């Protein structure tokens, strides 16, 4: 399986990761402010293959706004955590960015413990609320890689002062992640950490006061 980071021209866009194994998956979509070059790049990397899944780590616009352009092109199955899936389906005003998000009715719920089969890799769904009510992370046991959305970054943790945020829940989520052996951390913003992902979780817990 290869993991490719997809860049964006929009500074606040989320990181996007394209996973190519026997099946293919995109994690988060960016805001969709500038979609054409992103679609072009993904298409090039897919090299004629289908994009099987789009997984959303949480409902915020900077991670999900791109769905409106990506879903019609790639016709992927769209998956999100139980607490956030309905918000992505409904669309509507995003309180942080002050924009109206296009509804995406085809979102399916994925919950704790589910393993998404990409062929030689199984990505485990870990519910990590706190930044939002229904945030999820994905863990690949084979490469010991965590895709953490905005729960935890290379050096920092997600904000909990937005609607649906909860510091205690974020603390619990970080405690849960601490039990995983994380080599590589692919977070929702900022740099990728290769080799010392566990340190970012421990630092995150320290930022939250433990
Ligand atoms: Zn967010």
Describe what this molecule looks like in 3D.
The protein is an alpha/beta fold. It has a single domain, classed as Ribonuclease Z/Hydroxyacylglutathione hydrolase-like (Metallo-beta-lactamase, Chain A). Helices cover 25% and strands 29% of the residues. The strands form 4 sheets. The chain has a 6-stranded mixed sheet with strand order 1-2-3-4-5-8. It has a 6-stranded mixed sheet with strand order 9-10-11-12-15-16, with helices on one face. It has a two-stranded antiparallel ribbon with strand order 6-7. The model has no long low-confidence stretch (mean pLDDT 96). Bound molecules: zinc ion. The site of zinc ion has 4 residues, from loops.
What's the short story on this structure?
The protein has 210 residues and is α/β, with parallel strands linked by helices. It has helices at residues 36-46, 61-64, 67-74, 85-90, 167-178, 197-207; strands spanning 2-6, 16-20, 24-27, 53-56, 77-80, 92-94, 99-101, 107-109, 115-117, 122-127, 136-140, 145-149, 152-153, 156-157, 184-187, 193-194. Bound molecules: zinc ion.
The separation of the N and C termini measures 36 Å
Largest sheet geometry: 6 strands, mixed
Strand order of the largest sheet: 1-2-3-4-5-8
**Low-pLDDT segments, ≥5 res:** none
Number of helices: 6
Number of strands: 16
Share of residues in strands = 25-35%
Shape: globular
**Unique ligands:** zinc ion
According to CATH, the fold-level topology is Metallo-beta-lactamase, Chain A
Mean pLDDT, to the nearest integer, reads: 96
CATH superfamily: Ribonuclease Z/Hydroxyacylglutathione hydrolase-like
CATH top level assignment: Alpha Beta
Task: Give the name of the CATH architecture.
Answer: 4-Layer Sandwich
User: Into which percent range does the helicity of residues fall?
Assistant: 10-25%
- How many structural domains? 1
Tell me the series of helices and strands, N- to C-terminal: EEEHEHHEHEEEEEEEEEHEEH
Radius of gyration based on Cα positions = 16 Å
Q: Give the helix/strand class.
A: alpha/beta
